[in-house]
Amino acid sequence: MDLTGYIIGFIWGIVVSYIVNKIYKYYKTKQIVEMMMNSIPEEELMQLFKEIEQIEDGDE
Q1: Distance (Å, rounded) from C-alpha 47 to C-alpha 37?
Q2: Selection from 5, 24, 26 nearest residue 16 by Cα
Q3: Residue 60: helix, strand or coil by DSSP?
Q4: For labelling, which of 11, 21, 32, 33 has a CA lying 20 to 30 Å from the CA of 40?
Q5: CA 5 to chain centroid
């Protein structure tokens, strides 16, 4: 019975660390994107979004 408890605890630890890692990577990526957005002037940013929209419209 003790062995199954250790196995369940081990698997639970892996699952929790995986979820924490995913959340950490999401927020780290979000932070990097925000830093990049802040360094680009707003006019260039709007131009970039317009180009992306044109490309997406052309695919359909």
Answers
A1: 13
A2: 24
A3: coil
A4: 21
A5: 33
Contact 33/25 with Cβ under 8 angstroms? no
CA gap 40, 34 in Å, rounded: 10
pLDDT in tens, 41-51: 777 777 878 88
How far apart CA 48 and CA 22 sit, in angstroms, is: 28
> The whole model's pTM is what?
0.50
pLDDT, tens digit, for every residue of 20-45? Answer: 999 999 999 888 888 877 776 777 77
Q: How many residues does this entry show for the chain?
A: 60
* E strand spans, 1-60: none
